[in-house]
């Protein structure tokens, strides 16, 4: 049975492993044929910044992990407009293709899903 | 109802593990089913049998074990998150050529597929961080 | 109709703020663990959503529950979880 | 040699063990005859709230640990006025005797010390 | 004369705010780890204190350092620590 | 100058341990003395010899050990914080009747007095959280 599962990605990458552990869960879920969406919210929007270069701090690239999502047919990526703006980020600075939604749309996105989990 | 719990909290650095245990006990008291407790992120430390809390502190490892023994609850520890954090059972200790290990039954190591299974097959998955 | 579990202090962590930024009008909020430090936070006085606080967690911290928030025990916590489609933790 | 050591207590109690681990360090330092001051700053001011009752959540009382500080001759306790106000706390709600100072006084308090550490 | 190490994101944690609330006029600020997410934070544009950011940590995150902040490497990080009486971590 | 480091960060959940290691190496490169590295709070996990990070991840435990062997640095783990978190050496394992242990030299268990000693006797104590 395929479920619509929304993962809310709220953690900035690198400082904490939570962002990465969230992606690991997403990849697992995709391998089991679930219908996954990802919402980058709050500091989670930092996950999709382009030009990440973490080799110098001896960590694996978070962006590289996100870039393989299309191979798993995960293409419903959303980011919250106000959270991007608050952090001074615009769409040209993003490294993956996301749909930018407004805060007021988050509620119905969550409600439309079978299951929700946040990292 | 069928509940599952996701424990992300470090057992002796955060309160989340104590909250999860209390929630689990209340679930069972109310006649709900506890389908699985999944330990991920820092929560995997809960599975270490080497923890020696002080006498006036709750022994979370022992309390989960007791609860699992009484109610046959699945206590699953994410294997990838656990190995890097030094939580392993006898089999993994052999594979990684370690002389010691710290995870015993009823705790078990398994993949994230078990968390997905819990999320899909429970009515509710509650996260304790 | 969602239940939001706030598990961190609103003065040192953005959990409460991030939650309230996007909360739906039929959602409820439950303060627990360090989330109970939110009890008198200005962000909460502005919302119309039903607000609960775990009594054990607030009394542990020496906090009193204002009239606008309902103090509950674990029994009711479990019940609230069973009554909502989604239960989201903010930490 | 006795050093003037300031501990900045920034963590709220119970949710994290840091508040407690800070007190453990303070008690150790006092046992070695250091001249300890404590500054409750930010969420650290929650440490000194009266009527803490953590038995129900199976944790040890933080306030009880603070109450034994006078036995170790630790009596220089400070709390930041604005941080108390922001949290809606007034002096009647505090369970230990502290000197309330303003944010503008924190800088010189820190500078006056030999060593500083925050938890 | 203190050096303040900011180790958390200013958007989800109060480390930067708590630090700047009480910072002395001769103090310096060094952004590191998730603290480098502060690089374009409004709180930092208001202060006159010298501000540094660990280049490895900001470039790992895809962040660029504005002209008002000096990008440094570990060499200079250690040197700054040796030049200040107190080094305080905010996390 | 004489530096000491206080590591509070969990090795595989936070970046602080990596930062501390890089800072330590830079200190030594510059000819400074590294008087002591003290592991407290979640930082005590760094001392576990059972950690099995993936091949493309830094093994913080091994890197500290190597650095300590080369430069005879004191790697002190707070005994009270460690025991409750399941970090123990052979002696403590016997005392607590555990069949296994996970802390070996050059890591050692000791009290908070060693942190105080480091704070007093170093020119600078830097916290990595």
N-to-C SSE string of chain B, H for helix and E for strand: EHEHEHHEHE
The name of the CATH superfamily of chain B reads: DsrEFH-like
* Helical proportion of chain A, percent range: 25-40%
Query: What is the correct CATH architecture of chain A?
Result: 3-Layer(aba) Sandwich
- Through-space gap between termini of chain A: 24 Å
Q: Categorize the overall geometry of chain A.
A: globular
State the separation between the terminal residues of chain B, measured CA to CA.
Answer: 22 Å
Task: Please give a structural write-up.
The complex is a heterohexamer, with 2 copies of chain A (119 residues), 2 copies of chain B (129 residues) and 2 copies of chain C (91 residues). Chain A has 119 residues and is an alpha/beta fold. Helix content of chain A is 29%, strand content 20%. Chain A has a 5-stranded parallel β-sheet. In chain A, β1 (4-9), α1 (18-31) and β2 (35-40) form a beta-alpha-beta unit. Chain B is α/β, with parallel strands linked by helices. Helix content of chain B is 36%, strand content 21%. Chain B has helices at 16-29, 60-71, 79-84, 90-95, 113-121; strands spanning 2-7, 33-39, 74-78, 107-110, 124-128. In chain B, α2 (60-71) links the parallel β2 (33-39) and β3. Chain C is 30% helix and 23% strand. By secondary structure, chain C is α/β, with parallel strands linked by helices. Chain C has one domain: 3-Layer(aba) Sandwich (Hypothetical Protein Ychn, Chain: A). The longest helix of chain C has 10 residues, at 74-83. Chains B and F meet through loops of B and loops of F.
């Amino acid at each position: 049975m395929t479920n619509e599962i929304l993962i809310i990605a709220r953690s900035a990458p690198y400082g904490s492993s939570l962002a990465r552990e969230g992606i690991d869960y997403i990849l697992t879920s995709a391998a089991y044929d679930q219908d996954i969406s990802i919402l980058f919210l709050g500091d989670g929007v930092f996950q999709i910044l382009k030009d990440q270069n973490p080799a110098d701090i001896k960590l694996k690239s978070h962006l590289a992990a996100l870039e393989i999502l299309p191979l798993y047919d995960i293409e419903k990526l959303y980011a919250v407009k106000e959270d991007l703006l608050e952090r001074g980020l615009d769409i040209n600075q993003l490294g993956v293709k996301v749909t930018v939604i407004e805060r007021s749309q988050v509620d119905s996105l969550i409600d439309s899903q079978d299951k929700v989990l946040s990292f | 109802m069928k509940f599952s719990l996701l424990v992300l909290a470090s057992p002796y650095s955060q309160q989340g593990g104590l909250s999860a245990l209390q929630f689990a006990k209340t679930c069972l008291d109310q006649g709900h089913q506890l389908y699985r407790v999944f330990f991920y992120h820092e929560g995997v430390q809960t599975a270490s049998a080497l923890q020696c809390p002080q006498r006036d502190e709750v022994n979370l490892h022992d309390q989960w074990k007791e609860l699992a023994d009484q109610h046959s609850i699945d206590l699953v520890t994410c294997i990838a998150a656990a190995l890097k954090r030094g939580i392993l059972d006898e089999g993994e200790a052999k594979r990684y050529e370690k002389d010691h290990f710290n995870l015993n039954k009823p705790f078990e190591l398994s993949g994230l597929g078990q968390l997905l299974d819990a999320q899909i097959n429970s009515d509710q998955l509650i996260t304790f961080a | 109709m969602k239940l939001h579990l706030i598990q961190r202090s609103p003065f040192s962590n953005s959990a409460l703020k991030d939650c309230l930024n996007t909360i739906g009008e039929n959602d409820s909020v439950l303060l627990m663990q360090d989330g109970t430090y939110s009890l008198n936070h200005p962000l909460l006085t502005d919302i119309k959503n039903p607000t609960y606080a775990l009594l054990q967690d607030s009394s542990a911290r020496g906090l009193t529950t204002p009239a606008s928030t309902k103090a509950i025990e674990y029994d009711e916590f479990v019940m609230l979880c069973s009554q909502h489609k989604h239960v989201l933790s903010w930490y």
